Q: What sequence folds into this?
């Protein structure tokens, strides 16, 4: 079954995993590019150091995501200096409520042939 | 059903917007769904106000009074649709522009309503029904787990493992039959998702995710809305 969960346990130079290693090795340079590309400014050296630490953690996360999601491309985005909690708090915000959903009537089934 | 379908090619989708640092994705999802429904009902594509919902919609769930729409602190598309039914509809983006904060007072002017909801409902967890409702009624408001979206740059996202605890509101605008998944050595069908994080995120503001297996809960929380014909 092609959908069976298969986890790649070795790196392949031909996959994006290799380029992610490069990302981690050159984190300094990538962080500078990130700051420039997304116009990021921090309040001082402490904040800068903290954000760099978060940025490096997110490079590792991007690499993990690449392995778990190989048909997409994962890497540096404008959210790369945010912790997962900050990202959730600042950019998400859907209050899922299944009970509420069940009280709304269902759309009638539509024909899907031809 | 057509094998490929995209409401962007048919004029029902406004440009990608940016919610900024505010948890108002639910209002962007609801407004975008109504923009599409209003286009189908009237033939006019009008950019609608998210800020109106951020400022004015404090609708709570009947069964859970503490679950309410709360501006930048979050909300739900279906309760937003309830608000729109009761309030009369949405003003245009131009008349009630987005500020990205929820500290302002409600400035809704009913005489300025540009689009109104006539009905809304929930679509079953079935990819064909979701596609059929998309084709027939316009773009669909959906919830999705956004964990992989923080690092997403492009391609078809099809994670092997993804929680189904959605926490981001987005919009399905179409689907494709053949997004290539190299590790699976075959083309995979996918949904085309409009996000509200600006054009400099993802594929010019859009996200593609595997279709048909409720990946990241994308097919579990789908709602469709229809607009009043004027």
A:
């Amino acid at each position: 079954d092609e959908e069976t969960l298969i986890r790649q346990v070795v790196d392949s130079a031909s996959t994006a995993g290799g380029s992610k290693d490069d990302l981690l090795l050159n984190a300094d340079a990538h962080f500078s590019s990130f700051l420039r590309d997304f116009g990021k400014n921090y309040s001082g050296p402490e904040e800068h150091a903290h954000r760099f630490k978060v940025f490096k953690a997110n490079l590792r996360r991007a690499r993990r995501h690449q392995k778990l999601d190989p048909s997409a491309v994962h890497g540096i985005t404008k959210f790369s200096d945010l912790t997962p909690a900050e990202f959730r708090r600042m950019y998400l915000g859907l209050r899922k409520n299944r009970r509420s959903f069940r009280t709304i009537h269902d759309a009638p089934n539509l024909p899907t042939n031809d | 059903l057509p094998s490929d379908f995209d409401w962007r090619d048919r004029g029902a989708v406004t440009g990608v917007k940016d919610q900024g640092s505010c948890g108002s994705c639910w209002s962007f999802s609801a407004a975008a769904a109504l923009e599409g429904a209003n286009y189908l009902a009237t033939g006019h594509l009008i950019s609608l106000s998210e800020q109106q919902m951020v400022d004015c919609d404090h609708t709570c769930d009947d069964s859970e009074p503490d679950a309410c729409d709360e501006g930048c602190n979050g909300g739900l598309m279906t309760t937003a649709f309830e608000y729109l039914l009761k309030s009369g509809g949405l003003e245009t983006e131009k008349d009630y522009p987005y500020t990205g904060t929820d500290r302002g007072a409600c400035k809704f002017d009913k005489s300025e309503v540009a689009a109104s909801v006539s009905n809304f409902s929930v679509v079953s967890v079935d990819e064909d029904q979701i596609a059929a409702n998309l084709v027939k009624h316009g773009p669909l408001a959906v919830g999705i787990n956004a964990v992989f979206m923080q690092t997403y740059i492009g391609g078809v996202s099809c994670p092997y493992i993804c929680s189904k605890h959605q926490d981001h509101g987005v919009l399905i605008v179409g689907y494709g039959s053949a997004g290539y998944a190299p590790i699976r050595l075959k083309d995979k069908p996918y949904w085309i998702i409009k996000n509200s994080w600006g054009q400099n995120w993802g594929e010019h503001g859009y996200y593609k995710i595997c279709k048909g297996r409720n990946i990241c809960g994308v097919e579990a929380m789908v709602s469709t809305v229809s607009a009043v014909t004027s």
About this structure: The beta strands of chain B are 5-6, 117-123, 140-144, 152-157, 168-181, 186-194, 206-210, 222-227.
